[in-house]
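Side project, low priority. Logging it here so it doesn't get lost.
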Amino acid sequence: MGGGYYERQMSSNDNEPNENFNTGNFSISDSYTSNQIFGGEGSMISNSNTLDSYNSQRNKIGRQNGLHPTLDPRNYKEKNMISTAKNPVVFALDVTGSMSEWPQIIYDKMPMFFGQILMNKYLSDLQISFCAVADYGDEITLQVTEFSNAHEIDERISLLYLGGGMGPMIRHEAYESSGFFYSYMVDLINCDLPFFFLTCDEDYYPSVAQYRIKKKLGRDSEFEEIKGKKIFQDLQKKFNVFIIKKPYNDKKIEEGEIDQWIGTVGKERILVIDNPKASIDLILGTIAITNGRTLEEYENDMKNRGQTQDRIKEVILSLKIYHDALKNGKIKIIRKKDFNDNLEGKSQEYNNSNNIQELNEKDKRLKIFYEKFKGVDFRHDNYLKELNENYEKVDRDFHGKIPEEYLCPLTNKLFVEPVKFKDGSIFENQAIAKWLQMYDVHPITEKKFENVNYVKDYKTLMDVNEYYETVKNLLD
C-alpha cells in the first residue's frame, strides 16, 4: 500500500504540550520532544541509527544552496510526471518571506500525518508530491518532487531550496505556476480521490506571459498570456483544490486577496489558519471530511490524539464552511477512476456501478449509450480517418489536460467531425446520431428535443486542428 507510517524523531523546537495518540502497538506523537520515536515498517531510518539519521536529514531541510536537479520542473517539459496512487496529495508550499517556516513544520509533522491517515483510514494508497513556490523574479520559481510513498518523503523534501525572496510589493506570488504544473504536466493513473493543498499568504498573478512559463517550467503554451484564474479552474477539474491561507494583519490587503481566491476556488475551499502548526491538522480534517467523515467525528479524532482545546477550536472553525457546503451538496468532489477517457473506459466506469437502479436517469441513459455505442468509424472517409489517427495520440498523451471546448461531451475525445445545435452545443457527428437513435432528450441539458436540427461546425474543426498543430511537437 502506498503511504504507510514510518519512524522518525521529531525536532525539539516546539514548546507545545504533548499530543499523543496510540495506534494499538506503539505511540505516535506530535509533541516534538526528543525522547519519542515513530515506528513502523518501511522506515527510511533504521532502529540502530535513528537519531543520527534524523539529524542528518533535518540539517538538510532548507539548507540546499540551489535548485536540486531532480526538482527542476523542466525535467517534465516533454513527458509528464506520473502518480500511480489512488490518493495523490500535493503540498504546494510558499517558500518566500514569512511563509518559509511552513516546509520545516510540515516536514516535522509528516509522520503524524501518515500515521493518522493510516490509523483512521482517511485514505488508502497515498502518495505525496511537494512543490515549493517562489516568485518569477527569484532565481528558482518552482521546485517539484516526484509523488512519493512514506519511506521516500524525508529524502525528497530535504532537497527543497528555501531561497525565495520577500516577494514583490504588488503582493503576488507565482502560485499559478504550481497550478500550471499539476494541471498540465502531471498524469494521475489509478487515481480515485486526489488533493491539492496550497499554503499561501498572498494572491496569484492574474496573467502570466508565455515566455515565463517556457523559461521556468520548460513547457510551451499556445497562448501569449495565460490567465491565472483559468489555470486554477483547470486544476479544479483534476484535483480537489484547497487554499490554506495565512491571514495578513492588514485588513484591506487581506480582503483583496480573499476576494481573488473566492472568485477562483469559492469561499468554501479557502481555509484560513493563523497558526502554521495547525496546518496539518487542518489538512487532515479536510481529507477526512471530503472522504465521508463528519465534522463531529473529526473533532473526536483530534481529541483522541490529545490535541488542545484551543487547537481543536481553531481547526474546526476553519473547516465548518467547507463541511456545511459539502453536507448540503453545494460542492462537487473530484473523483477519477482508472480509465483512459475513451469509450471503453467510460463504459467500464458505468458498469462498475453496484446497481443501475441507484443511478439517476441521466446516468442510466449514458450507461446504456456507452454499452451500445462502440466508437466512431471513419473508414468511409480517408481525410477524417487520417485526422482521427493524428488526434488519437493527443487524446492519449494529453489525457485530462485538453481544453473542454475541443472535446466531444459524448466521446470525450478531440472533435473530428463536429456538428452544432442551435443552442450552441457541439457533438461528434456519429456520437450524437447514435444518441438520437436511442433518446429524444438532449445529452447534457436533458430537455426534450422538439425538432432535431444541427449543422457541421467548421469553426470548431479548425480550432481543434490549430490546437493539434500547437501541441503535436510535444508528443513523443
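Brief comment: Residues 96 and 344 are 46 Å apart (CA to CA).
Revisit when time allows.
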